[in-house]
Amino acid sequence: MQQYSSLPEQNSQVDTTPTLLATIQQLRAELWLERSLNKLQSRLNDYLVSASAPTIQVGITEAAIFQTVVDELDIALNNSRVAIALSQPQATFAKVCYVSSSPSPVVEVMPQKGKKLRLKLAQEIQVEDLQHLANQQPPSAWPLASDSGIIGWLIIAKTPRDLLTASQVQLKSELFTRVTQQCADALAQLKQIQSWQQLSQNIGSCNQELERTNQLKNQFLANTSHEIRTPLSSIIGFTHLLLAQGYEPTRERHQEYLNIIQSSGKHLLALINDILDLSKIEANQLEVQQEEVNVPELCRNVLALVKEKAANKGLKLRLELDPTVETLVADPLRLKQMLLNLLFNAVKFTRTGEVGLQVLPQGTSVRFTVWDTGIGISKVDLVQLFQPYFQIANSVTSRDEGTGLGLVVTKKLAEIHGGCVEVESEVNCGSRFTIMLPVKPVTEVEEKQEVQADAEVTPLSPQHIALSSNFSILLVEDDLPNGELIQTYLERLGYQVTWSKNATEMWAILSQQKPGLILVDIQLPDENGLNVAQQLRQKHEYQMIPVIAQTAMAMKGDREICLASGVNEYISKPLDLPLLAELVSKYIKLPQPESQDTSS
């Protein structure tokens, strides 16, 4: 007999329906969460890509990120008003800067019952209230953090009824937490993009500056090459004529040739000195020898040097001296150099009219103003005027002249003297360059004027001339033209000169004869001249022989280096021959007066 259970059979479909519905709701809520986050992330990525473009302004991109966050959250929450309030670190309030378009205007803040916060633009909210909203369950505010701390708050308004499903409500806090993280990540990436863009701009600026400097240097080298070749052509050409015709001192044309050669040589030296002066100034190695300067006399001498160039162009020269300006303390050679630079420039850029020098007192300073009626200077060129190698395009002359260093050197020399250079100019209306120098130096000169004292040349006495024929000199010089020049000059003064081309020859000659003086070049092919001087001082038999170093080393400290090696005197190239004669004459041993016999 079949038996049946009185218990009903379990209906699996009916029993599992609530669980299945809950699972479906949960899956839908999770899908809603991920879809909302993915949509927001996609839009943020689009803005970050846009931010990488150079035409996008950084401020607009940040605003777009914040506004996108509130708009996407508004959509995800079915039109619940969302806002972002920004604040400064350590501030006590935040200001609402971004809101969604939904109509819900307020958010309740507890525990202060009845207190309402309106989520509208520019509304200020106390940070204390925002912190309370963040600590509520469920929270209504979430902090937006960055590397520098909390920069703002993401806020959602409480509405009378929640428009989300129960499953969505459970995920709402997770949504806001992840949205704030997405927002923070986007801002951090934006900051990195800005940093890269700034770096790229800096690199671009550096590259442009390097390119500009390179162009200026190339132009400088081209101009300098042209300037150097011009006097060299005169030197080589007229020397060739003298050699071809046979030099005759009495021929007037030959004397003219020699004057041209000498003038061209001085021009070459001036060009090289401009380059060396700038190098010394930039290396803080330029020395000035300050002394009391007779201002009227110096100004007249300067204008006399410019007179010929001005006359060749039909320009009038004018000098205006205030009678109260008599002296100032400065380096006379450098002051003359500054004024000549300005005056030659004035003549160079003036086609017709006048060029003048005006000297006026101004308090404890003196104003040296060089003015002209020339082509003037544009505002664009004025900005670059004192940059190294820069030259103004000159329509007055057929070519660019000079190295582009004169004004730079002038400005820096004025600053070394404690002064400055000012310029006023207008196109086609001339220019006015003013050097302002203090009447007295800013600081006292601490170093002794050794170079100046050494350079004082006094005429040879009859006793010196008589004794020079018995005075032997050992010249150590590897450069043939310089060696021949020095030997010829000293022999014409009556000295006996033995010429060796290197240190090895010098030691061989010294083993056979003992000269009264050794004139040694520093750069020798087989030994450094300073080492030679040290070796001479270490050998007893040569310790008392005077040694003069002659070298192209002309930077600050070079003289001291040479003297420290044991030489007695130092003279730089190109050689000042009269100065060389004076230095040599100091070491001719004059006879001592006989002592009177008092024994009787």
Describe the structure.
- This protein has 600 residues and is of the alpha/beta class.
- The protein has 3 domains: 18-200, GAF domain (Beta-Lactamase); 291-438, Heat Shock Protein 90 (2-Layer Sandwich), CATH 3.30.565; 452-585, Response regulator (Rossmann fold), CATH 3.40.50.2300.
- Helix content is 48%, strand content 17%.
- It is built from 16 helices and 19 strands.
- The strands form 5 sheets. A 5-stranded antiparallel sheet has the order 5-2-1-7-6, sandwiched between helices. Strands 9-11-12-14-13 form a 5-stranded mixed sheet, covered by helices on one side. Strands 16-15-17-18-19 form a 5-stranded parallel sheet, sandwiched between helices.
- The protein starts with 11 loop residues before the first helix and ends in a 15-residue tail after the last helix.
List keywords for this structure.
Beta-Lactamase, elongated, 48% helix, alpha/beta, Rossmann fold, 5-stranded antiparallel beta sheet, single chain, Heat Shock Protein 90, 600 residues, 19 strands, disordered C terminus, 5-stranded mixed beta sheet
Short description:
By secondary structure, the chain is an alpha/beta fold.
Topology record:
Elements (H helix, E strand, L loop, with lengths): L11 H40 L6 H19 L5 E5 L6 E7 L6 E3 L7 E3 L5 E3 H9 L5 E6 L2 E8 L9 H80 L6 H31 L8 E4 H18 L3 E6 L5 E4 L1 H17 L5 E9 L2 E8 L6 H6 L21 H11 L3 E6 L5 E8 L11 H6 L6 H7 L3 E5 L3 H13 L3 E5 L2 H8 L6 E5 L7 H10 L8 E5 L6 H7 L4 E4 L4 H9 L15
Helix pairs in contact: 1-2, 1-4, 2-4, 4-5, 5-9, 6-7, 7-9
